[in-house]
Amino acid sequence: MTKSTLTTLPLFWIFLTSMGYETGAFTTHLPSPAPKYCSKPPMTTTTLFAIGPLARAKKALDPAEYNRIVEQKMKQDKLSRKEAEDDYNAFLENPPFYYALDKKEAYYKSLGYKDMYEGEIGEAEKEGRGDEVRERIAKFKQRSQVKAYSVLAVAVVGFCALRQFYLNDPDGFLPGL
């Protein structure tokens, strides 16, 4: 084996073992006040694929730093090792923006609401502004749907255009590959 093969094998292994990992890349954002801290981590699965590629790489490439942060989190938040690892892995996998949404979702579920939207509406109704929040959420969902359908339309049009280019000249399509 060559030196370059030996250095790429761990990265390839990280990629292969994390292929079944589900990420929160399409989580929606609804601006509102930040909820109180909820100590229950958003990620509670115990399977092999519970850790994503970024967290797996961090753990493999710098285990001392990874363990230091997990132990610090255990002391600060009074969590078990598994809960602290799950919490830190969720932080590594999701940008802080989405990580905060996971925490907000867990917070509202701990209060007994079905999801974050229902929780925000319920809390706003206690303050007497439920209609305003309900309207804001409806507008947000409508804008999100328009964006999603726009992305899908661009992808379908792009695929159809590439297919047509290929059908017009199959031998000249992407020469050199």
Give the SSE layout.
Elements: H1 3-17, H2 53-61, H3 63-77, H4 81-93, H5 96-110, H6 116-127, H7 130-168
Helix pairs in contact: 1-2, 2-3, 2-4, 3-4, 5-6, 6-7
Structure description:
- There is one protein chain.
- Residues 1-9 and 15-48 have low confidence and may be disordered.
- The chain has helices spanning 3-17, 53-61, 63-77, 81-93, 96-110, 116-127, 130-168.
- Helix 1 packs across helix 2 (53-61) and helix 3 packs across helix 4 (81-93).
- Helix content is 67%, strand content 0%.
- By secondary structure, it is mostly helical.
- It starts with a helix and ends in a 9-residue tail after the last helix.
Quick recap:
The chain has 177 residues and is mainly alpha-helical. The chain has helices at 3-17, 53-61, 63-77, 81-93, 96-110, 116-127, 130-168.
